[in-house]
Amino acid sequence: MHPLERLVNLVALLLDTRRPLTFDEIRRQIPAYGQGDAASSKRMFERDKDTLREAGIPVELEPTDVWDVERGYRIPREAYYLPEIAFTQEELWALFVAAHTPGADGEAEIAFQKLSSATEARLGALLGAGARAPGVDVSGPHLAAVSEALAQRKAIRFAYRPLQGRAGRRTIDPYSLVFRGGNWYVVGRDHARGDIRSYRLSRIRSAVQEAGEASRAPEGFDAASLLEAGPWGLGKPAATARVGFSPRIAWLAVAQTPGAHELRARRDGWVEVEVPASETDSFVSWVLSFGDDARVFAPRSIRDQVVARLESLAAGSADA
User: Cα(169)–Cα(211) distance, rounded to whole angstroms?
Assistant: First the structure.
């Protein structure tokens, strides 16, 4: 018998017994201790008992009768099993914030879900009651509804107005809540698009309604990676742009830009680079942060936004 199997059998026996068992009784019920002479078996048992105690398992020696004539071994259930986990509202919020604030990884969120699922306190109930996490914007009533749907594995439906494009209704299977850049996002499978998308809760324009059972997140799903930050802002970049950088900063811009791909070096020393982009203020601001050392060549829609921002800044300076 493998030593680990012997230890497991010993733990199971001593947990299950209603009274302390002597070594002879243990030896009769676990075959590994019945082999060879009694002295060598007792030494094996003593080593196993010490191993269990070192691992934190309380193997106790107690009288087998009221006269204390002989003593036996048992593992008290109340000392072996962990008590029910119970968190106060403040403690639950502290765990929630720690698992979802910037810098926390996916394992922290999974750990929070396991801990909170073992408590009687429901996160959704806390949110619905108007509680506020310290230092975190709970995005009105939507965070409560989405967290409740996550806990019950329900699909949700809501009206949504994106930063760019037309508003409309979305139906998704929520997989995770992520806190990034001061805002909450729900990440899940969009039914209409058949793909995993992220939605900012502050852009939801209706009540969040249940829409049946939700699917499980795919294996290896990592919500945080879907909300990576870059010059395009948060989330997946919607497009690519061709940007030129002056010889003075080209090497630095390429090295520090996620997903940047150098296209060619021109005779004047400027370097043309393809970078992930989006038609957002974030990307325009990123380009303008380089001043005269950066130019957008394509697409025209982003270039026009950069020009419009520069004209607005120039007009503001003239008025001042």
Answer: 12
